[in-house]
Write a structure and sequence with these properties.
3-stranded antiparallel β-sheet, Four Helix Bundle (Hemerythrin (Met), subunit A), mainly alpha, globular, 3 strands, homodimer, Arc Repressor Mutant, subunit A, 2 domains, 69% helix, DNA-binding, 225 residues
DNA sequence: GCATTTATTTGCGTATGCATTAATACATCC
DNA sequence: GGATGTATTAATGCATACGCAAATAAATGC
């Protein structure tokens, strides 16, 4: 891959990306408070770009600004998970329907297919991280094919909000073999142009995921992730 | 109403509210570009709080930051309208369903009922502005009763995005008498606890609204609002 | 004339400093 | 001893300044 010698990325953007990463990595743990100056020091920049990044991240629901107490990394409760999965269920179902209506050919569905294959491989190798990454790609590509940019954006935001939480629950449950069966059915329905089926199957898929996660959190008494 | 003598609202918040209002009022027209310094001058403050407000508004999809060309007030195309109404259809339908499942009594449904009554009055008086305001209240209260805060937030954002556009189309179509029939049916279904019906009726309501608006825009060749 | 290069302007990104105000510690009074 | 008022601290909100890069204008070469 040819690369530009160096892309001069602005401090604001760097703050945005690095803070996101640190939140996902648990480097900035859920529920923790951080002063603007602390974050600025952490990233070796002044407060200004940090403030801008933090403003944006607040809009994405990843943290909360509490004047004089610092920015709080938002924890995700089981109720939050339920809310988020409900949103995903509704919006992704429509995306699946629309993708089926669009009548994509096999080539256009390649990314979707690859993601599913990758998940199979990951499951066989018991590589849950790789599975999660491929799962993300599947759902991102699905909403992309759905053709509604707002849905794609919202779904992305919601998935970001559950990223941390999902990572911890990932290792608490059996291998998601059934999940990939669902994915294949969705793909099948889209490829055959059956919009109603695509919608129904994907809806069931997400509802099932929701119940799995929610009951898992309840079982382990996990209130905040 | 008793009021605090004066609430010292921050400049950032003032910028946020005033810019929003100016966008909705068409004071900052769709598609227009504005330099940060221009907006700062307009609001009598420095660039800093303006930048913060603009960042937030970008996240809400009301404007776009194009460095060196100014912030552009985002126009809404017919395709955007279609996207937005699709999102509203999916998310509000679930809210209606959940509201019905929650089993609210008549008192809890008072705001919803009042909004409907207000719309009847507004229609009788041919006061479209009042009708639109009451319609907003109906939909806001519906998603509130749905109990999913994220849905409420997203729906609010989407409605903000179509505000300007809706205002102009409002006077191009017949009185929305049928619309309020739908509202009553939704209320009825919620009051009687029929979640499936509530969902179905509201879905039809929003889909109908979408087709009305989209065909209206097509008919009048309105590409950007 | 047209294109290409150079100069100039101008808007933005970021750092910095200050004033404001909330939170905390302290002191005083009942 | 508890409560209320005051002082101190410290974090934020905002204004300002400055350097850089992009856009525009000017100039030079062909």
């Amino acid at each position: 891959m040819s690369k530009a010698p160096d892309k001069p990325v602005s401090s604001s953007q760097r703050a945005l990306h690095e803070l996101r990463e640190k939140i996902f990595a648990g480097d900035l743990p859920a529920g923790s408070d951080h002063l603007e100056s602390e974050l600025a020091g952490l990233l070796n920049m002044s407060r200004t770009p940090v403030r801008e990044a933090v403003l944006t991240l607040e809009g994405q629901g990843l943290l909360e600004l509490r004047p004089r107490k610092g920015v709080r990394i938002l924890p995700v409760s089981p109720e939050d998970m339920a809310e988020i999965y409900d949103v995903l269920t509704e919006l992704e179902s429509l995306a699946a329907q629309r993708a089926a209506e669009a009548g994509y050919d096999a080539d256009a569905l390649r990314l979707l297919t690859e993601a599913i294959d990758d998940m199979d491989v990951a499951i066989a190798e018991q590589d849950l991280e790789a599975w999660a990454a491929a799962d993300d790609r599947f759902h991102a590509e699905l909403v992309h094919l759905g053709g509604n940019s707002r849905i794609a954006g919202i779904v992305g935001m919601m998935i970001d909000q559950v990223r941390r939480a999902r990572k911890t629950t990932l290792f608490m449950r059996p291998l998601p073999t059934q999940s990939n069966e669902d994915h294949r059915q969705v793909l099948q329905a889209i490829a055959s142009g059956d919009a109603t089926l695509a919608r129904a199957v994907h809806r069931r898929h997400r509802q099932h995921a929701k119940s799995i996660i929610v009951s898992l959190l309840a079982k382990h008494r996990l209130r905040y992730l």
